[in-house]
Each structure stands twice: as structure tokens, then as C-alpha cells.
Description:
The chain is α+β, with helices and mostly antiparallel strands. Helices cover 41% and strands 28% of the residues. The strands form five sheets. Strands 2-1-6-5-4-3 form a six-stranded antiparallel sheet. Helix 21 (447-464) crosses helix 22. The protein is elongated.
Amino acid sequence: xxxxxxxxxxxxxxxxxxxxxxxxxxxxxxxxxxxxxxxxxxxxxxxxxxxxxxxxxxxxxxxxxxxxxxxxxxxxxxxxxxxxxxxxxxxxxxxxxxxxxxxxxxxxxxxxxxxxxxxxxxxxxxxxxxxxxxxxxxxxxxxxxxxxxxxxxxxxxxxxxxxxxxxxxxxxxxxxxxxxxxxxxxxxxxxxxxxxxxxxxxxxxxxxxxxxxxxxxxxxxxxxxxxxxxxxxxxxxxxxxxxxxxxxxxxxxxxxxxxxxxxxxxxxxxxxxxxxxxxxxxxxxxxxxxxxxxxxxxxxxxxxxxxxxxxxxxxxxxxxxxxxxxxxxxxxxxxxxxxxxxxxxxxxxxxxxxxxxxxxxxxxxxxxxxxxxxxxxxxxxxxxxxxxxxxxxxxxxxxxxxxxxxxxxxxxxxxxxxxxxxxxxxxxxxxxxxxxxxxxxxxxxxxxxxxxxxxxxxxxxxxxxxxxxxxxxxxxxxxxxxxxxxxxxxxxxxxxxxxxxxxxxxxxxxxxxxxxxxxxxxxxxxxxxxxxxxxxxxxxxxxxxxxxxxxxxxxxxxxxxxxxxxxxx
Length: 569
């Protein structure tokens, strides 16, 4: 191949090419090199001082390939970094401060030495590639790796990366504190499977959870226990090339769990899942615009963060309108009064329309200048607790079968009513009611039918009693009615209406027509009565008289003195 033909080929190459002879004079400076340096070939051909133009003020340092390009002395190679010599080919990475409009650039230089037929060096061909972007990327990657390494070593959170298959989960990297948690050294930690680190049952569960994360590509949040400590763990897939690894972190929540258990013991009626639930995190700005909505908030209220963040509270069907105004007042109060925290109880709508009752622990957040930035709220779901409290209140005051007041609740209500009636000189009457031959109904038809008879009796009583009257089951087939603001005659007439309604119309109980009959003893409050016991004693005497008279009747207790008159109130 002729010299001109070689020159033409070099000129057409996309790579920057420089050819120098034994006197270090430039013989070829191709078009790509012109574009790279901004120096035309006409200015450089025949010159031997190109190093200054090419490398700038550091030409003496940077012209390492020029210094010995024609010196066949491999020992000189050791003076230079990033240099590779293989026979007559030299490769080096060099920073040139005169490239890229004097901003500097990294280049990859490949030099090939050419010899004549006698083996003497004739010239050298330099191919120059701009690798600035690659070097910057490598630098950024190194910095990122260094930062990640620092994070892994010093993070207070337990951080780890694993390689996972359906049958094993193996540690690739773990933070220093995670190694302390497991109790083995750094060198022994990496490469270990879960079966080598944990008890068999726990290792099997962890491996199954890890594979579920990797295979499904989903984030997994769970609570774990190990060596007497509790941890909140989040695991997520980490894609690296064509491989999916598992990354995760765990937070020691032992103290939080202890607090939750103490709260559960104090409240006594919160269910187990309430005890273990983490708090939802919600953050508002000054305009009550939602700026943070945690995953637990999504679970608690049903609204996904992507559908609710950025909206003002009054723009969504999440809060009652009255609550919005109240929330704004509280927010302004926190800001104006410099209150650090507020604790509040409120109700909100779940996305499905149900109501969620919550305790809100709200804190004002300020920037370094002391300016209010947001209100951070931790929300505890107490819906189940409120349901249990209501149920307990009902159990404490209501008869389980008939759903009327029980004996204890009746005494509480009646004692207050009697004190009020005596103090205000108002009328008040008590009636004791027994279901006649109740034992025979149970014996003949069974206790299920007997229960239905009691329910039928209470249903008819409710139809004839006023709202202010108190109906209670004393036990078995015995009932009592408190008639506030009614004298013994008015109470007698009401009880008779109940008795006649039962007598005249047999009740269908489980397909059986049964005539229910009652006996009743009635006692009106008199000036001699000082408490509920004396009034009940006289009503009980009247009930005994009704039974002695053949049952299915009502008797009024003998007045030991004038009863209190009915007052219009």
C-alpha cells in the first residue's frame, strides 16, 4: 500500500489520528483530530512542539509517550500510570488540559511504532479517543459506591442485599450493624444462607418471603422477631442487569412494641391486630394540603397516596365538613400559640364509605428559621376499640337475652330517680312483674320457647310503656318497671293494659299458640319511703298478694301513708 493511500485512509478514519516521525515532527494530523483539538492540520504539519498545543502547560508531564516513543526501554514504563506496553504498542489514559476549549478532557491514546526493514523505528501512529464522559461516569460510580459503602457501614438501620432462589436466600452485602445483629464477623457474614444464620423454621420463612418479593416484584412489609427483639422490615426487588436481587432494611421497634403492649394493657379491650398495627403518617401544609400519605394511611383510609397527595382536605370525601373547619382552627392554634403537640380524637370516612375512628398525635414542624412548614400527624386506628367499649357498656347495663336494662343498671337509674322524686316531691311508682307458670312453659316446650315467651313479654311492654319508663329484667321470669312522674293508679292502668294484651291474644311461639299471663305488684312512692329497697319491698308484697289471688292479676301495695302526688313537670 502506497504512502498516499495510507494517508487517505487515515484521513477518513472517525478516530483522531496523529503520525510523528523520528524527529517528532507531525506528518499527519487528520480531520477528526482537528475537530477534537480545534487546531487545523495546516498549523501543525511539520512541527515538533505539538505537545504544548495538545497538552497545554503540563506538556512535559503529559507527553509521556513522546518522551520515550522511540526509546525501546520498557523500564521507563514504570514511571507512568494507566500505561500498558505490549511490544510496539503503547496504551495510556491521559488528562489533557488543552482540549474541549481549554476545559480539559480525558483521552485514550494508543501508539503503534513502525519499523523499517532493518528493524529501526521510523515513526509512530497515535490514535486518540475522547473518554471524558466515560471517566466522569466512572468517577460518579466510584463516588456512589463509596457513599453506599459508608451508608452500609454507619447506617443505624439494618441494611442488606441478597441473592434469592426458590430454595435459598444468600447474603451478598450487609451493613455493619446487621452483622452485629447476627453476631458473626464481616468476613463470615457475606455468602451465608438464611439456613446458616437463623434457626430452621425462621430461615424457611425468611427464604419464602424473600422469594415472594423477587418473583412477584412487590414490596413486602412485615414485622419480625429475633433474639428477643422486634423489627419492622421492608423488602423490595433490586434489578441489576438481567438479575433481580433483594434489598431490604429493618428497624428495631422493640421499644415501640413495648409501648403498644402497655397501651393495650391500659385499654384492655383493643384487639391483637390493633396492638400490632404501626401508626399512619400524614402531613399537611398550612392550607391543609396533604403532602405526605404513608402506606399505613392508605390501608387505614383506603385512599392511595397518588390519588390524595396534593389535594386539600376539603376537596376529598375523607373528612366531615365540620372536621375540616375544626382542623383549620387547631392548625392555626398550634402556629399562633407555639404548641408543639396536639392529641385529638376524630372520625373520618374510609374510601368504601365506612367510618374510621382515630386518635391523632399532631406536631408542628418548623424550619431552621423557626417558620412553620407543616403539621405532621401520627394516626392510631381506634375503631375496633370504640366498638368494644360500646359492647362492654351494653353488656354492663343490658340483659343479654331481652336487651332491656339489667338488674344492676336498674338500681343505678332508679336510685337517682327516687332521690329526685323525694327532693322535688314528685310521684314515682315501681311495678314487679312475674310471668305466670314460666317453669311449666320451659318444662313442656323447652327453654328455647321459654326464651321466646320472655321476648314476647318485653316486646308488648315496650308498646305500652313511655320513653321515660325503665323496664328491666331482675332475673329468670321476673321483671321490674320504674314509672317516673306517675302515681300508683297510673302505673296500675298501664300494667293492666299489658296484662290484658297478653291474655286476649295468644302468642305464636315457634308455631305453638301459647297464652302468656302475668302477675304484678305495684307500689307508689310515699312520704315513708326513703330509698329503693323500701319501695321494692312493698311492691314485692303486692306481687305475693297477686299470686295468692290466683295469678293473672295486678295488685297495688297498701299505702302506709299518703303517696306523693303527681306533679306536672
